[in-house]
Design brief:
binds magnesium ion; D-amino Acid Aminotransferase, Chain A, domain 1; 893 residues; elongated; alpha/beta; 4 domains; binds adenosine-5'-diphosphate
Length: 893
């Protein structure tokens, strides 16, 4: 076996690596190589691979001994190239040591500049290049090395610098002369001494410690946090780049800058960035002096500016994307120090993708790949005018459960939300947690905050379904329902908000904010988005349907490009008005099947449902509408135990002419220890066939009416939670009987399909025989995940999932992104066995995963026909489906 190669070199006009080696060299290293290969002026250096980072951690956080010899050899190559010598007093080579992982994590890890100076070398350096410059480099080294490597708080250095500037009566560090800087260096030595440290005088020691510190910075808390937030997983670690220093602090003909090849906020095709004369490295970002807009360089250094424009234009074409570039000018010579794909807003992403295509730099497929799902997400929600403007008003940070910005007045109950809304007010509904009973108020609210519950809590799921901003699990908020107040601590003081006070929510960041923060509508010119979406639709294979419960949402789904409804949940329909929930409760409470009360309640519910379905069929004219039969346990339609329940029992006893005790016994008898695995789904329809009959009749009567009026209806009736063929046969029998009755009564026969959800493992395993009975399968991946994994959707997040994802025991929450390995295998088995039994079996997914881009890539691969997601995620799912198809095709080539 060949020994592993730890180091790759790069230099002007040549390099060992290239941009496709990002995994190994990190983004910074790979693109330094690529820039060098393109002939750009890159200070020579080398990259120690990300594999060495793994080795470093396996080695207990120490550099592998062999590395040191290899570093020495690599430095020798650079020395020869530069005609300088590391550690030499007369011709010293200085280097930077820079972090850089495969995925860019801007500013999260560490970098040390000007390594290679010591008390003696700095004098040689001064003799060669001037004392002021040499001392400036040395004090910078002391500051960065102290901070990054020796963990001396950087405030200690800043205090000395500020004090010196004060004493000298100057505002900026460039106004300090050589003697001032000598004084500063002495003060810095004092700081070192106070912290019982010293700057190693051996340059090699500095270099090894610098490399060590950069590897270590891979696992500093802010880097870990950043990876967590951005779901960056599966990387080996950071690479380390050792690079010849070039000096932007060599006077007025030198400087340092950063720029984007296009405007990252709005996408305009212009060089965008900043430049600082006589400065080094982080000075631009750190705001030490106000930098000049990059375009002014055209006046100050015209030839350099022209070269920069030529370089960045070339790079953008070569890399086929908008670039974020770092550079330094040393005495009138331009050096390129970094390039990468620039981060951008949704608005910019769209414009840049279209313009790069129009300029012939990328093709349509590449344009589709360039706009990320989260960009589209941003484009589709109202946004805060500035997300920095409100920083001081942030009340708390919870889980960013549903993205977007919302502003409204605080209310604490669903009923109040509806009342305020009816008076024309915008409201934010704040609850301990929400339940299905709250849906009316949730719908009325602009946004939702809960104190308990995770990303798949009721509030989160429902809010995402509607594209309503939602922040969950805000444990630091205290609601007092009696006084209708919300208490929390802000800047050390207790603050109390009352009903009607204005609050704002940033569902994208999870922030709850005091006051009404200004909002702006998404800046999308329909034309641009429309153009991209046309390419998207051409590229994808998966159809995209929507999960929709009302005619209004059906219209939204259609406008967003939904090709039908993949999941219409009937239970929410029973909550939408007072009469409906009352009829539902009478039906539940009445035991006697044939009693007039029961029949009356069923008849009332049927009429409500028929009306809803008619509306939905009309809204989805010509497209399939998949309606799921009643699914949740019946007790979800009842209030919690307590006064509300007691009152309901009394009321129902009166209405049904039964004793209160009897009604109580009946309703309390519905409670289950483990309701998720209890009497729900098709089990309800089997224990209470009258419910299935009522629903099937309502669906088919509605379909018949709409068809008779000239509509094109495609009802798909979906049986939930089936595990056995006998269950399916039972429900099929009830449904077909209802269909016959409707046909006989109306003289019309509307074609319909009956399918099943695949959401318990037994159904997936029995997919063959089930397929013989079903026209379609729809994977209910929420339940399928819950049941395959044995993880409760309701509790797991708070109890252990967060710990799991934090510790890397799980890469991601399986309710957010489908567990492709385990639950995915269940899906694959069902697809194979189902299609083997019935080749034209239609296959779809209607769980929350239907809107998740990573999961969609899997559904594309496994060969499903469609995904179904909430109406507002439809464009995102279309994009994700297209990207999956394009990537799959590229891989096949
Ligand atoms: P980050 O990943 O935080 O951007 P970098 O490794 O890019 O850190 O370093 C930050 C800055 O330091 C660079 O933008 C550049 O200005 C400066 N820098 C790094 N290496 C050198 C070098 N060899 N010569 C001159 N400046 C450098
Ligand atoms: Mg950088
Ligand atoms: Mg389910």
């Amino acid at each position: 076996m060949a020994p592993i190669r730890r180091i790759y070199g790069f230099a002007r006009g040549s390099s060992d690596g290239n941009k496709s080696m990002k995994e190994l060299l990190g983004g910074k290293g790979a693109y330094l190589c690529e820039m060098a290969r393109c002939g750009l002026n890159v200070p020579p250096g080398f990259t120690i691979t990300t594999e060495v980072c793994e080795e470093f951690y396996a080695n207990g956080g120490m550099l592998p001994e062999a590395l040191k010899t290899e570093v020495k050899a690599a430095v020798a190559v650079v020395e020869a190239d530069m005609g300088l010598k590391f550690g030499d007093v007369n011709t010293p080579l200085l280097v930077s040591v820079r972090s850089g992982a495969a995925v860019s994590m801007p500013g999260m890890m560490d970098t040390v500049l000007n390594l290679g100076l010591n008390d003696a070398i700095v004098e040689g350096f001064a003799a060669k290049y001037g004392a002021r410059f040499a001392m400036d480099c040395y004090r910078r080294l002391m500051q960065m090395f102290g901070d990054v490597v020796l963990e001396i708080p950087h405030e200690a250095f800043e205090a000395k610098l500020a004090a010196l500037k004060g004493r000298k009566g100057v505002q900026y560090d460039v106004q300090l002369d050589a003697d001032d800087l000598r004084e500063l260096i002495a003060a810095y030595k004092q700081v070192y001494a106070e912290h019982k440290q010293e700057l190693p005088q051996d340059p090699w020691q500095q270099l090894y410690l610098g490399i060590n510190a950069v590897f270590k910075s891979w696992n500093i808390p802010r880097a870990i946090k950043y990876r967590e937030i951005n779901k960056i997983t599966g990387l080996k670690g950071t690479a380390v780049n050792v690079q010849t220093m070039v000096y932007g602090n060599m006077g007025e003909s030198s400087g340092t800058g950063v720029c984007f090849t296009r405007n990252p906020a709005n996408g305009a095709s212009e060089l965008f960035g900043e430049f600082l004369i006589n400065a080094q490295g982080e000075d631009v970002v750190a705001g030490i002096r106000t930098p000049m807009p990059i375009k002014l360089m055209a006046d100050v250094m015209p030839p350099i500016y022209a070269e920069l424009v030529a370089n960045t234009t070339m790079l953008e074409k070569h890399m086929k994307d908008m670039q974020d570039v770092e550079f330094t000018v040393q005495e009138g010579r331009l050096f390129m120090l970094q390039c990468r794909s620039g981060k951008r807003t949704g608005t910019a992403a769209l414009r840049i993708a279209l313009e790069l295509q129009a300029e012939g730099i990328i093709d349509r497929d590449e344009a589709v790949l360039m706009v990320e799902p989260r960009h589209l997400d941003q484009l589709l929600h109202p946004q805060f005018e500035s997300d920095k403007g409100y920083a001081k008003d942030v009340i708390t940070r919870g889980l960013a459960a549903s993205p977007g910005a919302a502003v409204g007045r605080l209310v604490f109950s669903a009923a109040e939300a509806e009342e305020w809304k009816a008076r024309g007010e915008r409201v934010i509904l704040c609850r301990h947690e929400t339940s299905p009973e709250d849906v009316g108020g949730m719908h009325a609210a602009e946004g939702i905050v809960t104190c308990r519950g995770g990303m798949t809590s009721h509030a989160a799921v429902v809010a995402r379904g509607w594209g309503k901003p939602c922040v969950c699990g805000c444990e630091h908020l205290h609601i007092d329902l009696k006084t209708k107040t919300l208490t929390f601590e802000l800047h050390g003081a207790e603050v109390r908000l009352r009903e009607g006070d204005w609050v704002s929510l940033n569902g994208t960041s999870g922030e709850v904010i005091n006051g009404a923060q200004p909002l702006k509508a998404p800046e999308v010119t329909g034309g641009d988005l429309g153009k991209l979406m046309a390419w998207v639709d051409k590229a994808r294979r998966l159809r995209v349907l929507a999960n929709v419960d009302t005619p209004e949402d059906a219209a939204i789904a259609r406008a967003n490009g939904a090709q039908g409804i993949g999941l219409c949940r009937t239970e929410h329909m029973f909550f939408s008005t007072h009469e409906r929930i009352a009829a539902m409760r009478r039906m539940i409470a009445e035991e006697e099947l044939a009693s007039s009360h029961k029949l009356e309640a069923l008849e009332a519910l049927k009429a409500f449902q028929r009306e809803d379905f008619e509306g939905i069929f009309k809204a989805m004219d010509g497209l399939p509408v998949t309606i799921r039969l009643l699914d949740p346990p019946l007790h979800e339609f009842l209030p919690q135990e307590g006064p509300a329940m007691a009152a309901l029992c009394r009321q129902l006893a009166g209405e049904l002419g039964a004793s209160v005790e009897r009604v109580e016994a009946r309703l309390n008898g519905l409670r289950e220890v483990n309701p998720m695995m209890g009497l729900r789904g098709c089990r309800l329809g089997i224990v209470h066939p009258e419910i299935t009959d009522m629903q099937a009749t309502a669906i088919l009567e509605a379909a018949t009416r709409v068809a008779a009026a000239g509509g094109h209806v495609h009802p798909h009736i979906m049986v939930p939670l089936v595990a056995t063929t006998d269950e399916m046969d039972h429900q099929l029998h009830v449904i077909h009987a209802a269909a016959k009755r409707v046909a006989a009564a109306t003289g019309e026969k509307v074609p319909y399909k009956v399918g099943t959800m695949i959401e318990v493992p037994r159904a997936a395993l029995q997919a063959g025989p089930l397929a013989e009975r079903a026209d379609f399968f729809s994977f209910g991946t929420n339940d399928l995940t819950q049941m395959t994994y044995g993880i409760s959707r309701d509790d797991a997040q708070a109890k252990f999932l967060t710990t799991y994802t934090h510790n890397g025991i799980l890469q991601s929450d399986p309710f957010d992104t489908l567990d492709v390995v385990g639950v995915g295998e269940m899906v694959r088995i069902a697809v194979e066995r189902g299609r083997a039994a019935k080749p034209d079996l239609e296959l779809g997914i209607c769980g929350e995963h239907g809107g998740d881009p990573n999961s969609i890539a899997f559904f594309n691969k496994v060969g499903l026909d469609y995904v179904s997601c909430s109406p507002l995620r439809v464009p995102i799912a279309r994009l994700a489906a297209a990207q999956a198809a394009i990537k799959a095709a590229a891989k096949a080539k």
